[in-house]
Each structure stands twice: as structure tokens, then as C-alpha cells.
Amino acid sequence: MLELQNIDVFYGNIQALHDISITIRQGEIVTLIGANGAGKSTTLMTISGILPPRHGRVIFLNQQISGLMPDRIVQLGISQVPEGRHIFPALTVSENLDLGAFLRRDHAAIADDKAWLYGLFPILEKRRQQPGGTLSGGEQQMLAIARALMARPKLLLLDEPSMGLAPLITKQIFEILLKLNKEHQTTIFLVEQNANLALRIAHRAYVLENGRVVLQGDAAVLRDNPVVQKAYLGM
Amino acid sequence: MITRHDLRHAGLTGLWFMFLTFPLVVIKINPIEHTVHWRWSNMVWIGVVSFLASLTIRLVQGRRRTGENEKQQSLLQTSVRQFDLLRRPAFFRAALITSSVLLISFPLFFSSYQVNILTTALMYVVLGLGLNIVVGMAGLLDLGYVAFYAVGAYTYALLHLHFNLGFWMVLPIGGLLGALFGLLLGFPVLRLRGDYLAIVTLAFGQIVRLILENWSEFSKGPSGIANIARPGLFGLTLSPEATITYLYYLMIGLVGLTVFVVNRLQNSRIGRAWQALREDEIACQAMGIDKTKIKLSAFALGATWAGMAGVFFAAKTTFVNPASFTFIESAIILCIVVLGGMGSIAGVMVGALILILLPEYLRAVADYRMLAFGAILVVMMIVRPQGLIAPKRRTYTLPSTHNPVNSSDVPASDR
Ligand SMILES: Nc1ncnc2c1ncn2[C@@H]1O[C@H](COP(=O)(O)OP(=O)(O)OP(=O)(O)O)[C@@H](O)[C@H]1O
Ligand SMILES: [Mg+2]
């Protein structure tokens, strides 16, 4: 479904990604784990078209998307939940969700999706007239995910959804991701520092170090890999 | 209750104000007789008035604070205290009709002088609503808005001078050129935000004025262009009074059009995109909103109104020169938007009327006009920092267990 082919990304003269190749198949949960500054967010920004790669290509559904504008890429079916959530603080929960569907014009279906998402995240329905900025961290993360889903993405990109959240809330959010994947066949690319949880829900995983993919494979296999255990699982 | 602390604070405020206003209100130099006239009584007045004002403000704020504490105890309840009435559709409609009737019948009851002043104020309503698109809705701080006003005014002046084009012909051209200059400013500042954006737009406004001042072959320089034709009315020649009335009604029409369009814009897709842009640019991109297009459209659509107001200004005064387009004009228009309430149409209208009419009617206290004006501005911003009419309900209802409130009863928004 999505393929990164030998991507190099630079910030000015500093190379952040070196020859990255990643494949995500329809219906999968793929996770990208790595330490701070490894280049995880950079990878997502490249997929979303916010950072252009200097070399290499990004292919989505047999079409090259590297070089397209970010709004085009959203339109093609890739939604990102950015790192740090970035909800609209002064807009209500409901208005935040409406903006998620900004590119859609099928009003009836939008209303249905909103109702469906309220079902998935009941707390958001309770808070729907409340400004996004007044939500708790966990609620904001749920809002950010729900807002991204309002675009009906074929591929959902998540950047560290567990950041700053209590373990219980994190678990709740991961359960919802799993449910989305199982029941709605949403393909998910999950960037995480919480390798333990990420490797548990993902099918496959990539490990990023200093802008290079150093390991890849089935999540279950990687979980038993001694290197991964030592570096990322704290065992 | 008044505490000693309150008294001390008010006393200090009084002293401070006496010190601040001392050079202005106490010393009066007579340059002919070379004498200095000390008006100590003025100083006493200032002291007493600011002491009392400070005391009142402290008391009011104190009461409000205790009120808020009580409110917090009873959980968060809807608490739109002031202007709650304005939110009610019935009241809003009534207010709209009343003010329309008042505005339309105004020339019947008042002198041409008054009508003329009100026309000017209405022109600033249009300018304020235009700038409100850029600053209030899209959140882009533009300190050079007056440049587009100048573009409109000179468009009419020059097209009339060289090609003898009439007002009606030039009005849309002025709007278009305004939009074009909006884009011209928009492109280089696409990547800028906040302070940097403010500085560049400020410079842009100065550049336009300096060009008009110095490129004499094009704009006739500081002496300006005179004898610009007033708007025509099917070739009729109107008496001076009739012209003023006619201009007034034209202005009413332009205000009506502006309000209609801006209101439409605000509730449109593009309006929502502006709002998103104002809130968070990264999220904006994640939503698939084309930042470039949205920013440029805000600059262009905002500048359109300044262009049209400029054409109108040239037609009204029949004379334009660069001195009418200084930074202070931009600042006043920005004040209108901020004071009225960023993003609120009604707020901007009220703001324009107050800011333009107030100095006129403060002529009664001639010498201290600007002092009083400044004081009123400061007080208003202290009392209502979010503007006279806040654009949106910032307060909300939390359904509590004791008092369940169906949130669908709450209007989603009143924009
Ligand atoms: N805007 C930028 N300009 C210059 N360098 C940047 C920029 N953004 C990121 N970098 C650098 O690129 C590298 C990768 O950063 P990135 O944000 O992708 O890391 P990350 O894996 O997401 O880290 P974290 O887990 O802390 O979010 C880092 O060395 C970082 O300093
Ligand atoms: Mg990151």
C-alpha cells in the first residue's frame, strides 16, 4: 500500500534520514520504533509531504506521492495524527472533528462518521461543546485520532500517541487502534517510543537508529530479539 | 468593602496620573508673552478623578472575583455575563432592525455635518471588517493595511485624472487592485508569522506611502491629486447637501454588502480554514488544508474591502494625498478590530463607530481630546480584553450530575 524507497531527507546540510526503505501492506499495523532524535517524526513528515526527500521515492497505492503537496496527500487517503496532538485549542471538540473532514463534501456521510467516532470515543461526545484546549491530555489524544479518522483515511499515521499519557490511558488508546484495525481494516503506521506496547499490537516493525533502519521484521520476532530487548524494552 | 490596601492603591494611581499628565494639563506656555501659566487646579482634578476611578475599578473587580469563586464552587455553569442578550437570536434581530432603521433615517433628522461624520465612521466599518478578515479570522497580524486603502484611493484618482473614468466603473477596479496588492504582500510573507509578519506588513505600508510621496510623475507626490469627481447619479447634478446624503446612502449600501459577504465568508469552508490556520498551522496541514492558498486568500479578500473603501474615500473628499495613508491609519483600523472584538462582525461595527465618532464628539473637551481618547481605550481594554463583543462563546456548559444540561440545547456557535 505504502512504500518508501531509499529515502534521504536533509534539514539544511544535516542528513536526518539515510536510505530508508519501508513497506506497509493493506490492513497491517506497522510500527516504527527508535530513540529520541532517531528520525521517526521526520519519516512521517516525509510521507505526509511536509518534508520533501532529496533522494528516493514514496509510493502510495501505485502512485508516486513524494513531491505532492500535503493537502493532495491527505486527499489521496493518508491522515497524520501529529506529534504533540495539535488539536485546535479554542475550537470545540465538534468543530475540531468537522475540520478533520475539511476535504470531504459528502455531508451525510460526514455526520455518520462523526456519530460513529462518538461511539468509539464516548468521552468526546460528552465533551463535544467544550473547547479542545480544555480537554485532558488523553482526551486530546483521542480527539486528535478521531479528527484524523474524520478524513476517512486509507492509511493512518500516528506519531507517539502515548506521549505524556498514563499507562492506563495509553492502553485504552492502543486497544482502540487495534479495534480500528480489526473491525474496520484501517491500515496503521505507528511511530512509538513505547516499544513494548507498540510491538504487542503491531504485525511488523522497523527499528530506526540515527536515521537508518537497523532492524526490521515481524513484531513478535523483534520482541524476542536480544538487541531490541536490551535497547528498547529495558530487559 | 473598601480596605486600606484599596485606598493606598487608588492613592498611588492618582499620584501616578497626576505625574503623567503634568506636562500636558498643568503647564501652559504662552509663546507670545513668554510666560508660563501653571494650572494647578487641573492637577487636583486629575488626581481626584483617577483616585475615584481606580477605587471603583478595584471594587468592581473585587466583587466580580468573589462572584467567580462562588461560581466555581457550584461547578462550571454557563456564565456569559455581559452581552448575553446579544446572543439571543430574537434580540439580535430586533437590534439589527432597529439599528438599520436608525441608520437609514439618520439624514432626515440630523444636519449634513453629522451625516458627513457618520459616513466617515461607516467607511471605517468597511475597513475594520476587511482587516478583520486578515487579523481576526485568519490571525495574521497586518500593520500595513492602509496600503490597500491608498491603492484604492489612488486607483480612482489616477483613472479619473488620466482616463476620466467614473466612480461606478472604478469601484470594482479598486477592489480588484486591492486584492492584487494583497496577493503581492501575501507571497513574500507566506512563511512569516507573528512579530515578523507584523514588521514586514508595517514596512509594506510605509513603502506604498513613500512611493506615492516620491514618485511625483506617477502620483503627483505630496501635493496629491485634486478635483476628483463625486459619484454620479444618472447624470444629475446634486446640491452640496444632497451629495452628502447621497454619499451616505452609498456608504450604507457598501456596509451592507460588506457585512453580507463577510458573514458568508465566516461561515464558509474558507472561513473555517482561516480559523484553523489561526489556531494551529501544523494541524492545519494535517487536515489537508492548503496553507498557501488560505493565507493568500485572506490577504486578498481583506484587501479588497480596503481598495473599495479607498475609491469611496477619494470620491468623498475629491482629493487624495499620501498624508492620508500614514501608519496611524493602520493603527486606528487595527484598534477598531481589536477593541470591537477580533473575529466578531458586530463587534467591529461597534468598535468603528466608537473609535471614529468618539474623537469627533470629544471636541467639546478640545484640548484634552486625545488624552481622553487614550484613557478610554486603556480602560476598555482592561475591562473587556477580548473586545466589546467577543466573537464567540468562550464559556460553555458542563453537564453536571446535579443539573444535567442537554448540550444540544446550546447553539453550536453564533458566528
Ligand atoms: N526542523 C528541523 N531542523 C533541523 N533539524 C531537525 C529539525 N527537525 C528535526 N531535526 C533533527 O532531525 C533528527 C530527527 O528528528 P525527529 O524529530 O525525526 O526525531 P524523532 O525520532 O521523532 O524523535 P522524538 O522521539 O524525540 O520525537 C534529529 O537529530 C533532529 O535534531
Ligand atoms: Mg518525533
Walk me through the structure.
The complex is a heterodimer of chains A (235) and B (415). By secondary structure, chain A is of the alpha/beta class. Chain A has a domain at 1-28 and 50-62. Chain A is built from 10 helices and 10 strands. In chain A, the strands form 2 sheets. Chain A has a 6-stranded mixed β-sheet, sandwiched between helices. A 4-stranded antiparallel β-sheet of chain A has the order 2-1-4-5, with helices on one face. The longest helix of chain A has 18 residues, at 167-184. With 415 residues, chain B is mainly alpha-helical. In chain B, 69% of the residues lie in helices and 2% in strands. Chain B contains 16 helices and 2 strands. Chain B has helices spanning 4-26, 40-73, 84-87, 89-109, 112-137, 146-163, 167-186, 194-214, 216-219, 240-266, 269-279, 281-286, 291-317, 327-340, 345-361, 369-383, and strands spanning 27-30, 35-38. Chain B is globular and about 70 Å long. Residues 73-83 and 393-415 of chain B have low confidence and may be disordered. The chains are: A alpha/beta (235), B mainly alpha (415). At the A-B interface, helix 2, strand 6 and helix 3 of A face helix 11 and helix 12 of B. The complex binds adenosine-5'-triphosphate and magnesium ion. Magnesium ion binds next to helix 1 of chain A.
Compact description:
The complex is a heterodimer of chains A (235) and B (415). Chain A is built from 10 helices and 10 strands.
What's the total helix number of chain B? 16
Number of E strands of chain A: 10
| Mean model confidence by pLDDT of chain A | 92
Beta-sheet strand percentage of chain A? 25-35%
Quantity of strands of chain B, as a count: 2
What would the principal axes of the Cα set say about the shape of chain B?
A: globular
Radius of gyration of chain B: 24 Å
**Ligands, ions, cofactors:** adenosine-5'-triphosphate, magnesium ion
Q: Quaternary status of these chains?
A: heterodimer
Radius of gyration of chain A: 17 Å
Order of helices and strands of chain A: EEEHEEHEHHHHEHEHEEHH
- DSSP helix fraction of chain A: 25-40%
Number of domains of chain B: 2
